[in-house]
Specification:
It comes from Lysinibacillus capsici. By secondary structure, the protein is mostly helical. The chain has a single domain, classed as Amino acid/polyamine transporter I (Up-down Bundle). It contains 15 helices and no strands. The longest helix is centred in the first third of the chain and has 44 residues.
Length: about 350
Amino acid sequence: MKKSWQIGGAFVGLIVGAGFASGQEIMQYFTSFGLYSMVGAIVATLAFAFLGMSLAQLGTDLQTTSHKEVIYHIGGRYVGIILDIVITFFLFGVAVVMFAGSGSTFHQMFGINPVVGSIFMVVITILTLLLNVNNIINLIALVTPYLMGIIFIILIYSIFTMDISIAEQNTLAKAQSSAASNWLMGALLYVSYNIAAGAAMLIVMGGTVKDRKVAGRGGLLGGLMLGILIVLINIAMFAKINVIDGVAMPTLELAKQIHPIVGVLMSIALLGMMYNTAVGMFYSFTVRFIAPDHQYFKVAIVVIGLIGFAASLVGFTTLVGKAYSTMGYLGFALIVAVIISWLRKLPKTL
């Protein structure tokens, strides 16, 4: 069971920076649909649990050390190429969003120009990969329970300090920008881009164990934890929608409402999770094209990092709405392939 919890925790640690920490993602894909966001959150929880379990088990079945083997296994020679390209595109896209998110965090919390915050994240990400400081990544992964603790505090505060009616909350929520046409599509797109972004790591983690039940349980636990986080953040933001109206980093704003010190603690957690995700995605993207021991690997890290910084100047809120939606639609191909693979194996397990 310990190994299952490790897999689940690592899965949450990777995804939480890309899809949860700032609150902007939950806002655009859930909260902006008002009361229906609660139903969307439940749908997303079930989808995360199933897909997490399936991907981890695929990694175990093939005992792979690379996501490519599983992708070509479930997609075949031709569809596999498309899925490989999609996941590779996601890795770069999520890293860029993390650079932009760092800029928004610095601006909202400390009043610093967003460009400075983005440069900070790009520089420490590049330095980490150049120095190969793996221990730092492992330490930052410990921020996950710390972040969940702060989110729970924000939830309690939001519920007990509500000062408008549910009807008013619903109206205000629906006035926010949405990244999808309806609550169901919002939930599915959200799951799609997050799963596509985390698939590579989850598959490799599944390959580290020989018991598919242990791997599957890990993916399932990770998916359920992600779902619980969606529900908690969504409730907190819906309750205080009048406070976070139009804010780039909603969870940070709620933390600041409690006390400036809580705001600082939240900003540290946000930067830690964004750093963790940026390093993981950036590394996975780079090694897809050039081996870590290649003489030009470090040069590639710097060049790709600068390209990522340039792309991040589009802005965090815009990237969350546009880039993540595009990734979500493309990610449906991966979800369909995983479901078909699971259905093929179903008769053998019955």
